[in-house]
Amino acid sequence: MVKSENKSEKAAKIVFITAACFSIVAVFAIVLFIFASAFPALQEIGTFKFLFGSKWFPKQDEYGLLPMIVATLLVTVSALLIGGAFGIFTAIFVVYFCPKKLKGFFNQIIVLLAGIPSIIYGFFGMIVLSPALKSLFNAESGNGLLASALILGLMILPTVTSLTKNALESVPRSYSEGSLALGASREQTIFRIDLPAAKTGVLSALTLGAGRAIGETMAVLVVCGNSAAFPDGLFSPIRPLTVNIVNEMGYAMGLHRQALFATGLVLLVFIFLLNGFLAFIKREKKEKDEANRTLVGGGAGEYIYKVRGMGSKILSVVSCLIAAVVVLVLGILIGYILVNGLPEISLDFLFGKPTYKTPTLLGAFVSTGWIILLSLLIAIPLGVGAAIFLVEYTKPGSKLVKVIRVFIDTLSGIPSIVFGLFGMIAFCAGGKSLFAGALTLSLMILPTVIRSVEESLLAVQNSVREGSLALGATKVRTIFKVVLPSALSGVVTAIILSVGRIVSESAALIFTAGSLPMVPSSPLDSGSTFAVLMYNFTAENPNMEAAYATATVLLMLVFLVNLAAYFCEKKWKKNK
Amino acid sequence: MKTIEQFKFENKIAVEIREMDLFYGNFQALKKINMTIPENRITAMIGPSGCGKSTLLKSLNRMNDLVEGCRVEGVIQIGGQNIYDKAMNLSMLRKNVGMVFQRPNPFAMSVYDNIVYGPRTFGIKKKADLDEIVERSLKGAAMWEELKDRLNKSALGLSGGQQQRLCIARALAVEPQILLMDEPTSALDPISTGKIEELCTELKKDVTIVMVTHNMQQATRISDKTAFFLLGEMVEMGDTHKIFSMPENKKTEDYITGRFG
């Protein structure tokens, strides 16, 4: 009896370790598969020629990626300047200047901004931003570098804001007290003490924002202008790396197809470089051996002290203005889509039988349902298992945990278009299918699942575990009967966050699950979710009415997900 | 740009508190406080935890303004000016009434930048001036010899006692007239405590010191005046040696002889 229990204990541990190591396997598999598919191209074209060639003419077998690399870097840097500045100032507003009653509202705004699908940002750019830029600057077309940078800036804003906010909130109060007690004004204290003290957090926020901007596909697809030439002005059409892949993958064959995988490989390299930089700034700093300061003599000895701080006062006003602009932009985005989209929604459009001429959303309901169900069925057990291993079976500071965590972070940073490429070669041997899409998405949501379950496991007090163990219960029994039930909130949060991510994902699904508005009859059929249909209606087969209506449905879904998350959080906070 | 003046003390009086009440929401934390704090002396405030002594200290540079729901009635005059007057400039007040906290709170910057933070805040920019201020302040806090070769090192790398003396030097850098110290040695070892007490005795030539302390030996060792607080009221104030040898009030006697607290 005792023996068999020992065996099951061991078996359980092996299961948990396997789940935890899955992220490592996934990252290696992605890198290997992409590399293997890209390698022939690098060999045939020559790595140097591929990276630094300036002409991309697939028909003449000329593959030079430099214009796209330059475009990606340029648009990322500009998005970072815009979104970074706006994000940091918004965070400053929320933490320091926001009236208490409005704090919850602003937090929800940031969550909402983060939850809006990228294809909707792209759509917004196409129908509102580009025309506005065109008439404002009298340009030939509003699309191009500036429009892409603005849309990407808006997209990375929530990332930058929420991480900067966390960093500012964790600056010790004693710092600001020390500064105020010296006579510095509140504004001076914020900009000269708190913000510099949160510097590491702000820098990681910007790095993650850069990662998001580099990997973003759908939002830039429709506003970038899509020309593989070097950008030479704010309105010059560009083509970032991601757009290069999504645009041509549909029909590419042979060397062309391999060259697109190589484009994905370059994207991966960029992301890994950013990850490395992130690890570098987060690592604990050793005290630097700087040369000592030598003082020069000759100070006046008697000083006139003056009331200063106009600069920080102005910056404070700027932060309030910027927060207002963010709310305004979100309001315009939602308002514009709802006003134009709601009249287009009809029962027939929602649930009617689709034909090629009159697409409906029926297929999207079925496909999205299947993909959510299947991805959760795969990712939740894996994620819970991994989280159990990380929290219940390891000692703090263990090397294995550190390694696993690096890989989980890496997995969460990989752009969705690269997941799409991987899913395409790994899961689509029998053609595109909902199942292949779900497999791909389960990899994408895994890091989120692990993280939120882990957090709630950590919140379970040790005394609870000890109480169960002291009664003679085995470790596995303790975990399943006592610990996991108290960590249920984490699992539910994980499910909600995952549903949000799945609903808004499009780039990873186009090449794995398909993009046509047909109704799938089984999970092995191809089918497209709402977000993918949205892509179809904006880019592949433009259909404005359908696009507005689908955008409206998507927005409603995002609202629902956010609402669910909000109420769950509220409920659990109350219970604690 | 407005120049920051100093308070003008008259009759050797630094602070004059009259009929002062302080509320946190509905809770009255201080009741009818009347107190006169003399210039260039060390005044100790003693009493059991929660008696309001730290609260009173923090109302002298209006750090209480940061506490939500805090309300002050009555008058606190420094150099004849009511510091709770609407016209009072907070920067002027806090520049002249410095503060040292219970736990050392150096900024995450170099030693040098910690000290010049205050002067820079008030518009002093010239390197020669800032250098002079650093040297003077560190000398004032008796740590010039210790730190003159480590000015560019992070202040967070110093020991707890050094950090606290650095915080004193930082406060001295803007030439305060009054220095408020909120149990400045309670987080420190006996040797560091000794150094800070010695420093206080040095400093009172130039600065008026008001110190909250839990340690009654400390009060007897360094303070000239002692005020005893209980349940939000000031029970008794007088020359330190008198308070500790023949207190007028029975409650004071009970407290200093260790019968409660």
Assembly category: heterodimer
Strand content of chain A: under 5%
Largest sheet of chain B: 6 strands, mixed
What is the beta-strand fraction of chain B? Answer: 25-35%
The name of the CATH topology of the largest domain in chain A is MetI-like fold
| Strand and helix order of chain B | EEEHEEHEHHHHEHEHEEHH
CATH topology of chain B: Rossmann fold
Tell me the distance between the termini of chain A. 39 Å
CATH class of the largest domain in chain A: Mainly Alpha
CATH class of chain B: Alpha Beta
Mean pLDDT of chain B: 93
What can you tell me about this protein's structure?
The complex is a heterodimer of chains A (576) and B (261). Chain A is mainly alpha-helical. Chain A folds into 2 domains: 9-45 and 345-458 and 485-576, MetI-like (MetI-like fold); 56-282, MetI-like (MetI-like fold). Chain A is 74% helix and 1% strand. Chain B is of the alpha/beta class. Chain B has a single domain (13-256), classed as P-loop containing nucleotide triphosphate hydrolases (Rossmann fold). Chain B is 34% helix and 26% strand. Chain B has helices spanning 53-59, 90-96, 111-121, 127-140, 144-147, 160-172, 190-203, 216-222, 240-245, 250-256; strands at residues 13-24, 27-38, 42-46, 70-78, 81-82, 97-100, 178-182, 208-212, 225-230, 233-239. In chain B, a hairpin with a 2-residue loop joins strand 4 (70-78) and strand 5 (81-82). In chain B, helix 3 packs across helix 4 and helix 6 packs parallel to helix 7. The mean pLDDT of chain B is 93. At the A-B interface, helix 7 and helix 8 of A face helix 2, helix 3, helix 4 and helix 6 of B.
Q: What secondary-structure arrangement, pairings included, does this model have?
A:
The complex is a heterodimer of chains A (576) and B (261).
Chain A: H1 2-45, H2 47-52, E1 56-57, E2 62-63, H3 66-97, H4 100-115, H5 118-137, H6 145-169, H7 173-181, H8 186-197, H9 199-215, H10 218-221, H11 241-248, H12 254-282, H13 310-341, H14 347-351, H15 362-392, H16 399-413, H17 416-427, H18 434-459, H19 462-470, H20 475-486, H21 488-504, H22 507-510, H23 530-540, H24 544-575
Antiparallel strand pairs in A: 1-2
Chain B: E1 13-24, E2 27-38, E3 42-46, H1 53-59, E4 70-78, E5 81-82, H2 90-96, E6 97-100, H3 111-121, H4 127-140, H5 144-147, H6 160-172, E7 178-182, H7 190-203, E8 208-212, H8 216-222, E9 225-230, E10 233-239, H9 240-245, H10 250-256
Parallel strand pairs in B: 3-8, 3-9, 6-7, 7-8
Antiparallel strand pairs in B: 1-2, 1-4, 4-5, 9-10
Helix pairs in contact in B: 3-4, 3-6, 4-6, 6-7
